[in-house]
Automatic annotation (TrEMBL):
GO terms for molecular function: hydrolase activity. This is Phosphohydrolase. InterPro entries: HD/PDEase_dom (IPR003607), HD_domain (IPR006674). It comes from the Bacteria.
Length: 217
């Protein structure tokens, strides 16, 4: 099978897997991450096929939507890649990326390293910030029936991901828990540049949000 065929088969497979996904973790998220990954990869020396496959397969069964099961996504990805006769070595690399890409409250020790992981992780993180990041965050909050903001529940920086998940913390808190931390976690120069601009946009958004919350004077 040639490389183009493998990528188009993967696209078809992922679209199908994500047919009923929540708006922030749907096929369009994957498409944006894929495009970001290609953009970043242009500036790096890397195995493009690994970048493409990992970007496409990184969220096919997010544990948030599958009772916390973190093994399901990697299992489905492996089965698919085997069906496409991808080499064992490449499958292992893609699975390692999928298992190590996530933010997990920032307390997560990466136990695998590769430039391809760095690229796809940056691409995924870029989609968590800026205008799209804001939209995805409020969409997820709505999906969880959370309040937008509650001045009585001040955003807490020191809340663990687990505590947060089980709380009814308003969606604005997620900015402090994750979104505003991402710009300093980018791996590549390309992503750092884009992240800095998107970070600035989020800071402006928050300032405007709080001002409007208080009402016009
Ligand atoms: P990662 O793949 O880095 O672990 P997630 O899948 O947890 O990231 O989050 C991706 C996006 O989903 C977040 O950037 C955010 O927009 C939304 N999201 C996830 N968890 C929450 C949450 N607790 N509150 C609001 N939005 C969330
Ligand atoms: Ni993702």
């Amino acid at each position: 099978m040639n490389q183009n065929e493998l990528i188009s088969n993967t696209i078809l497979f992922v679209r199908q897997q994500l047919e009923n996904a929540e708006g922030g973790h749907d096929w369009f998220h994957i498409e944006r991450v894929y495009k970001n990954a290609l953009l970043i990869a242009k500036e790096e020396t890397c195995n493009l096929q690994i970048v493409q496959l990992s970007a496409l397969l990184h969220d096919i069964a997010d544990s948030k939507f599958h009772n916390g099961d973190e093994t399901l996504g990697p299992k489905i990805a492996r089965k698919f890649l085997e069906s496409q006769n991808v080499s064992e070595q490449d499958i292992n690399h893609v699975i390692n990326i999928i298992e190590n890409i996530s933010f997990k409250g920032g307390n997560f020790e990466k136990n695998f390293n590769s430039i391809e992981l760095d690229i796809v992780q940056d691409a995924d993180r870029l989609d968590a910030i800026g205008a799209i990041g804001i939209a995805r965050t409020f969409n997820y909050g709505g999906f969880k029936n959370r309040a937008l903001y509650d001045p009585k529940i001040a955003p807490k920086l020191d809340m663990s991901a687990e505590e947060y998940k089980n709380s009814q913390a308003p969606t604005i808190n997620h900015f402090y828990e994750k979104l505003l931390l991402l710009k300093d976690k980018m791996n590549t120069t390309t992503a750092k540049k884009i992240a800095s601009q998107r970070h600035h946009f989020m800071e402006n958004f928050l300032a405007q949000f709080y001002a409007e919350w208080e009402g016009e004077k």
